[in-house]
């Protein structure tokens, strides 16, 4: 059995993994999450099933690593998501902070689909939901992001 | 506005810096099984690869390494990364050999890719003194299989570490140069350098 050298995995998917990390984190933390993603992937790579979809695998690791970093930095206040940000919050929101304000399901669906480029069937497999539910969560998430970012996006 | 537009504001990935750090951390954690780089020389563009044990492969396809990298990934480990700095020392030693400034490769070598009879032949190649040549038949006799002349030719062509292990010093009994993985011109150049006065 032949297996692509890991270098080609980095070359093909490095930018995609960066989008996922950078959407959720500032530059320094995104650097860290990117490294941790590819180190975890490098460690597991020899045991990866031959028919595994590498993008889905990497994007899922990247999302998990980014969330790990967010939790470490205590920026993610679980269970304390305001329904509607106040006007002053909205003005200062950037994408990473807006994403952090989404319910976890919506955030995961948006990040995996729009930034990771995964089709909804794979997003659903990662989230353990149906493709329709993943699609709904993603479109709800995007609508919510638009509201949150409305102040700076207009 | 398309949905993606909302998410389009992400700055581009600083891939070179990210990659350099990945290589560093992978090596620290013992996850860099095969490091590689290309090296342009007078005998062609080489691809060098090393394991933590030493230089493991030299091939003449530095400009188009995909096939060799796939082979190394399958034969050694798929944990393969481009890591030029980790091969600086080996590159300097090979350049010195090619320029006639050194008479032997003194750095660590990993013979993991030389197996069976090929390994026996490679060990005999290392015994041919600088500036001398042997025939395929002589190497076959030295390897204890005097009739295996063709197999010696194959083993020389498959030498995983040409230049560092001097398969270029094996020529045909009739004086013709015989084959070389890097082409006959490269073989002639290496032999000419060894024959040069003061070489």
TrEMBL record, chain A:
It comes from the Bacteria. Residues 10-75 form the RNA polymerase sigma-70 region domain. This is RNA polymerase sigma factor (Sigma-70 family). It comes from Agrococcus jenensis. NCBIfam families: sigma70-ECF (TIGR02937). GO terms for molecular function: DNA binding; sigma factor activity. Keywords: DNA-binding, Sigma factor, Transcription, Transcription regulation. Belongs to the sigma-70 factor family. ECF subfamily. Residues 94-139 form the RNA polymerase sigma factor 70 region 4 type domain. GO terms for biological process: DNA-templated transcription initiation.
TrEMBL record, chain B:
CDD domains: ATase. One of its GO terms (biological process) is methylation. Keywords: DNA damage, DNA repair, Methyltransferase, Transferase. SUPFAM superfamilies: Methylated DNA-protein cysteine methyltransferase domain, Methylated DNA-protein cysteine methyltransferase, C-terminal domain. It is an enzyme of class 2 (transferase). It comes from the Bacteria. Residues 117-195 form the Methylated-DNA-[protein]-cysteine S-methyltransferase DNA binding domain. One of its GO terms (molecular function) is methylated-DNA-[protein]-cysteine S-methyltransferase activity. The keyword DNA damage applies. It catalyses: a 4-O-methyl-thymidine in DNA + L-cysteinyl-[protein] = a thymidine in DNA + S-methyl-L-cysteinyl-[protein]; a 6-O-methyl-2'-deoxyguanosine in DNA + L-cysteinyl-[protein] = S-methyl-L-cysteinyl-[protein] + a 2'-deoxyguanosine in DNA. Belongs to the MGMT family. This is methylated-DNA--[protein]-cysteine S-methyltransferase. It comes from Agrococcus jenensis.
